[in-house]
Amino acid sequence: RSFLNREDIGIILISQCLAELIRHAVEAHARPLPAVLEIPSKEHPYDPAKDSVLRRARGVFTPDDLR
Asked: Are the beta carbons of 30 and 59 closer than 8 angstroms?
């Protein structure tokens, strides 16, 4: 959580499998900066259903907006 309060950090990259371990903190983060982006890891397959950024984007855009 200390990374979320630092003004010298603009993007936090975290593997999706680790984000699952702290999902409550990832979901609670609502500020635009720092952006928390979940990335795939070599050991675990990427699951778009668990990606918090993708879920938020689906709520903002319609399918026609993404074409």
From this structure: no
**The pLDDT value given to residue 47:** 82
Helix (H) or strand (E) holding 59: helix 52-60
Q: Can you tell me whether residue 39 is helix, strand or coil?
A: strand
What tens digit of pLDDT does each residue of 11-34 get? 999 999 999 998 888 888 888 889
End-to-end CA distance of the chain: 36
pTM of the model: 0.67
- Which DSSP symbol is given to 48? G
Half-sphere exposure of 18 (CA within 13 A, CB side): 11
Cβ neighbors of 66 (< 8 A, separation 6 or more) are none
